[in-house]
Amino acid sequence: MDWKTASSYYEARLSDALNVQRHALNLAMLPQAEVPARLKEVLLQEAEPTRRQLERLKKREFRIAVVGLEKAGKSTFINAWLQCDLLPAKGGRCTFTTTQIYSVENESEQRLEVQARTEEEFINLLKELEKVGAKEDLNTIRTNEITLQQVRREGNLTFPFTRLEDIKEPLKKYVADEKYAHAVLEARLYTNKLAQAEGIVFYDVPGLDSGLAKHVDEAQAMLSDCDAVILVQRFTSLREKELEIIKFTELGDKNVTVADKLFVFLSRIDSLGSAEALKTHIEEASQDWLKRAKLPPERIVYGSAGAYLILNGLAEEQTKLEIGDASNIEAQLKRLTGITDEETLNKNGTGIPEIKEKIFNYINTERVSI
Fold it and tell me: Looking at residues 105-112, what average pLDDT do you find?
C-alpha cells in the first residue's frame, strides 16, 4: 500500500477512532461513571496528535520540516532538491520567516503567496526583538520603516509563475531582503517541481540558534506536526540547539519516535580536508545519533547541496562565490570519496539523489507502516 492509498485508508480509521474517543469521553464525564480525572485527561491527550494526523491525511499532505542551525545550508539543500538556485542562501541571516513549499500537479497552479503581518503582529514582533535585545534587527527595522509600512499596507500578495526562475526576485525580496522581510509573516510557494511526491510540503524553518523566540516556536510547531524531519548538520557533534530537535519531535506524538521520522544530511563535506577526515566525520556523527536518538546509520546521508548545484550547472553567482568553481569542487569530491566517474560522483558524491530516494521510499513504504 503506497502513501496515497494509505492516506485514504487511515483517514477512515482515525475518524472512527476519534468517534469512539468522543463517545468514551462523554460517558466518562457522567458523574455515575466515577472515572478518575487522570483517565479523562489521558482520553483528551491521546486525541490531539490523532486530530493533527487526520487533518494532514484529509489534505493529502506529507509534511517535511527542513531544520538546522543558521547557515547550516537548509535553503541550499532545498534549492538542490528543487534543482533551482532559488531560495536565498548567503552570509548572514537570509531566512527570516518560514518558507513553505507545496507540491501541485499543474503548471497553471504554480504561484508564490506572500502573507504580510498585520499591525498587531508587527508590534508583537518589535516587542519580542526588544525583549531578546536584537539590536541589529531593531536598527534594520528603524532604517527601513517606510518600506516595511508599504508591505503591511499592500497586504497579502500572489505572484503566478511558469518557471521557478521567474519568482526569484519577489521571493528574495520578501523572505531575505531586510528592507521588506520583517513585515512578512510567511511565504508559500506552490510548484510542480515537487510533483514526484504528490502532496509533499517542505518547511524551510529559520535557524534554531537565531536568538528569536518566534523561530524556536515555529520550529517546535513544525517538528511536532510533520511526517518527516531532515536535519541539515554541518558539525560532527550536536550543538545544544540541535538537541532541541529531538525534544520537539518527541513532543509531537509520543507514539512515534525520533528515529521513526528523522533523516540527517551531513552537509558541506567538500570543506573537509581529506578522505580520512570524511570517514571520521561520518563515523562520529553516526555514533552520536545512535546514542542520542537510536537513529540507524542508514538514515544519515553525507554530501554537499552546493556542490550538487555547481556540478549540475544550476548554481547562481552567489553560490559559486561561496562554494567555488566546478573543476575545484569535482577534484575535491573525488579526493574525498574516491569516486572517479563524473555521473556517479554527481549522485553519490553530493548526496542529494540519495536522500531524495530515501525520502520517497520512506513516504511510500516506511511511513505507511509507522
Answer: 91
Rounded Cα distance between 36 and 29, Å, is: 10
**CA 249 – CA 146 distance, rounded (Å):** 39
Q: What's the full length of the chain, in residues?
A: 370
Tell whether the torsion through CA atoms of 235, 239, 245 and 251 is positive or negative: positive
Strand (E) or helix (H) holding 290: helix 275-293
Helix (H/G/I), strand (E/B), else coil: 159: strand
| Cα–Cα distance measured from residue 250 to residue 52, given in angstroms and rounded to the nearest whole number | 15
Rounded Cα–Cα distance for residues 57 and 18 (Å): 14
Place of cell 525520533: 258
Q: Taking the mean position of all CA atoms in its chain, how far away is CA 110?
A: 20
Average model confidence (pLDDT) across the chain? 85
Q: How confident is the model at residue 214 (pLDDT cuts 50, 70, 90)?
A: low
Residues 44, 201: Cα–Cα separation, whole Å = 28
Within 10 Å of residue 34's Cβ, how many Cβ atoms?
A: 7
Q: How far apart are CA 76 and CA 63, in angstroms?
A: 19
pLDDT digits (tens, 9 = 90+) for 6-20: 888 999 999 999 999
pLDDT, tens digit (0-9, with 9 covering 90-100), for 249-269: 777 677 788 889 899 999 989
What pairing do the DSSP bridges indicate for beta strands 184-191 and 200-204?
unpaired
Provide long-range contacts, Cβ within 8 A and 24+ apart, for 165-174: 165/84, 165/86, 167/86, 167/112, 168/86, 170/112, 170/114, 171/86, 171/87, 171/88, 171/99, 171/112, 172/88, 174/114
